[in-house]
Amino acid sequence: MRALETCLYVADLEAAEAFYSGVLGLRLYGKVPGRHLFYRLEGSMLLIFDPSMSAQPGDVPPHAGKPGGHACLAITREETDTWQALLEGHGLSVTRYAWGNRGESLYFEDPSGNVLELAPPGIWGLE
Amino acid sequence: MRALETCLYVADLEAAEAFYSGVLGLRLYGKVPGRHLFYRLEGSMLLIFDPSMSAQPGDVPPHAGKPGGHACLAITREETDTWQALLEGHGLSVTRYAWGNRGESLYFEDPSGNVLELAPPGIWGLE
Fold first, then answer.
1. What is d(CA A35, CA A13) in angstroms, rounded to the nearest whole number?
2. Three-state DSSP class for A58?
3. Residues 46-65 of chain A whose Cβ lies under 8 A from any Cβ of chain B
4. Total number of domains constituting chain A
5. What residue numbers bound the domain in which B85 lies?
6. In contact, A87 and A23? CB cutoff 8 Å
7. CA distance B4 to A120
8. Nearest chain A Cα distance for residue B6, angstroms
9. Residue A78: which CATH number?
10. Is any Cβ of chain A less than 8 angstroms from the Cβ of B122?
11. What is the pLDDT of residue A53?
């Protein structure tokens, strides 16, 4: 099975939209102000919720994770330097970590304290 | 960019392993007892952490989401009935929701209260 929805929870959706759209350049698929931002990834979705709203009963079961989680998006090894420069150019603190010779991860935080990572699939032995 | 790591946080890793390996049948890629379970998905990883341990400083930045989050894994439309029967056969309460004519989602909880979903990619207009 493949992942179809990866979720993060944030305290401030407007700050999140500025970050995920403006800094990471992800493609916004849909939004409900105050509740969620849905981003289209390659073959799956990144769903960003305000947990105070996603916890409300509705058509589908409520859920309410918390900020401070983690997700990783794939980049190529060749993009690592470019992404580090871009993120630091936005004033972000970036931690770079080498997984032996399999590739390097870039770690940084979104405005709500979620720990994001950009890494090549090779760190997991994936194509 | 595609999702490379989808994370969930649990209160009991042993119960989580019985569930994700035994009920969902995911392939365990690695584990550190008391800290995490790493599952291999198609093209990405599902990482399940005990947040009390993932919050400890280490080689890579700590993170500590909370149980009660959400993730969705892809199934085919034709598998929906089979999965519902399998999950209910394990005693799980399953909520089935139709997204118009694009497909149906199955919602259920893992032992730590994360809301899991199985759905065909078509609910998002994906292949």
1. 8
2. coil
3. 46-47, 49, 54, 59-65
4. 1
5. 5-57+66-124
6. yes
7. 8
8. 5
9. 3.10.180.10
10. no
11. 96
